[in-house]
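Risk register update: the risk of archive-format incompatibility is retired. Evidence:
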Amino acid sequence: MKRTHHCNELRPEHIGQTVTLAGWVHSRRDLGGLIFIDVRDREGRTQTVFDPSDLDKELFERASALRSECVISITGKVRKRPEGTDNPKIATGQVEVGVTTLELLNYAEVLPFNVDDPEIASKVNEELRLKYRYLDIRRPEMIRNLRLRSKVATATRVFFDEQGFLEVETPILFKSTPEGAREFLVPNRREPGTFYALPQSPQQFKQILMVAGVEKYYQLARCFRDEDQRADRQLEFTQIDLEMSFVGVEDVLGVLEELTVRVWRDTIGIELPRTRLSLVASDHLPLVADVRIGF
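Archived output:
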């Protein structure tokens, strides 16, 4: 491992410990002969200090030549920040690392836009951001979105497992089964002139699973629809797809309500009130429930 701690981990209780951090140069400041470099990884950032009185000239010059988004590994001792210099905006704002060694893992060229700019989404053309997507994703806002989506997926899987559902991955390549939109077609190399279709939803597969006796199925399903893009339409998307056998409306609503409550609680810590209105069961309700939730 290139590091002993991530860049959002150090606290006052780590003072006096020798640590190794690895990440990207978030910012560099040269103040009064000292060089301050904030090192950032996906968890956060930590201030590091290069003091010429403690370092050899060659190492200090290498630190002076660093620019934003260079990838580095540093080793040093954790110490309390001087009085009055704490930064309450970051979790590691009470401490800093006095650097003793520096390793340059990758040097960054001049950036097309500043990753650390909090208003980058409104200042930078979206086409440019997508062209340099690997830079755009480094922004804290984007990392938060990815982390939230991962937590939603984890909470969903844990919930359905507790409820007795089986996660079944259905095929992506299948024959054409027209639904509400055009399908994406994939040429079949083995039989020229024939094509596979990418699924608009796992509809037929999950019906087969119900007939086969699986009873409770779910999947974080990738779906593809060849249609004009709008604010609520995409060429590809993920949906929480589920199917249940031997159930009524109340059963379906109960599962979806509990799923929603669980996901909100486990991902953002909000306890939603249960306000679902009870529905009267009917003899005409189907025994199989098909549910799709955008994700």
